[in-house]
Amino acid sequence: MNKIYTIATILMLCSLNLSAQQLNTSMDSTVTTNGEVTIKGVSVKYSATTGKQPVWDEKGKIIAGLYFTYYQRLGVNNRAKRPLIISLNGGPGSASVWMHIAYTGPKILKIDDEGYPVQPYGIKDNVHSILDVADIVYINPVNTGYSRAVDTMDEDEKRKTFFGVNADIKYLASWINTFVTRQNRWESPKYLIGESYGAPRVSGLSLELQNRHWMYLNGVILVSPTGLGIERGTAVEAANLLPYYAATAWYHQKLPSDLQSKDLTNMLTEVEEYTVNELIPIMAKGGFLPEAEKKKAAARIARYSGLSEKVVMEHDLRIPKGFFWKELLRDEGFNIGRLDSRYLGIDKMVAGEKPDYSAELTSWLHSFTPAINYYIKNHLKYETDLKYNMFGPVHPWDNSNNNTGFDLRQAMAQNPYLHVLVQAGYYDGGTDYFNSKYNQWQMDTSGKLRERMTWEGYRSGHMMYLRSEDLASSNEHIREFLVKSTPKDGQPAEYKR
Q1: What is the pTM of this model?
Q2: Where is the signal peptide (predicted)?
Q3: Domain span at residue 151?
């Protein structure tokens, strides 16, 4: 009996050992596979390294492990001239899954041409990937993807260290420094790309990397950026939504025939000019706006937004976004998506002030979640029983002292090589396209940096790359940006009078 019990115990311990290996909580381990993809008609062979790299505290103790995936094109003789793209998403609390398997990487999820889920779920080659011209690393901050803090940290310490605008920037910059050193990429031109909240994240990182790690960048790409800590004020904040409302109303054919017959961007030029030249001053008058002027403004807002004058007047000219998403197609029994207003949802009741759920986010999670879990296990060969956090617990998030837009401006001023590209979807109501333009206008009021700033718009929403036409054009715009931001051989980083 004793012998049998001993064997059983050994088997049980082996089983427990195997389970621990499957959970894969190591903070410093990777696996590398090779792949191949055809981009622009050319076969591109690459290696994909995925796993975790540690975050250390100031005493050299590991406090977290960040899950990442790093793609390198094979057969490159001179990596000193090959760009390295460092990719981060936002939330805060969002994994790097979105741009990884839908935008710039060598594989993208299976969806239709407009971005809607299709079965069977899975992935396919990304013929528009930028891997032909740049290497890419996708980083998951703490509590996103498989990234985790060590168990010995208490919750207050985790929040102080990881979950805030400036804490996030500080530890990510340190991690990037280690990554660049490990991968021997200090000579390479380096770029940051950040989507949504990832935009203030990489904007702040541009200055943190430069001033504390002496890592100078060639470019920062802001995809569907948030406000970057740039104050609007109540009047500007309310007025700036009108161009997005107009774009969405145009898409759903809710505008008057003379506006509806125009091309989208031509129509928006008129709305943007009205917003800047007339609506902002009108909103600034608030309750002291004369009634006749208020009614005139309501008529104009109604004309551009697709809503009724009555509704606009009832809201004192200030239409909340949630109400707009509920109201525009209320008579048809639909609500529209927040981050991409092409998407339709169905609420329990037609009545109400805002949609019951986000139609677009539900659709995206529908297609992305099975695809990333399948891809990591079956293609990247990374084994773990940890849950892949599409959205992880990072709240409450400390938003205080958000100066990221001005940090980016300071980094540009200090670094003559540094360029900025902004990409935005016209139908994005979460981080609307017009406010992304406003960011650029206000970042540098001197206008001296404007020649190094580029803005591109797309006829889709927050993740414009989900629409096949925009996937092609947005990746091509990144290629053009890499060329634009690469100095000529021997060109010094200096300002000349």
Answers
A1: 0.94
A2: 1-20
A3: 37-230+366-484
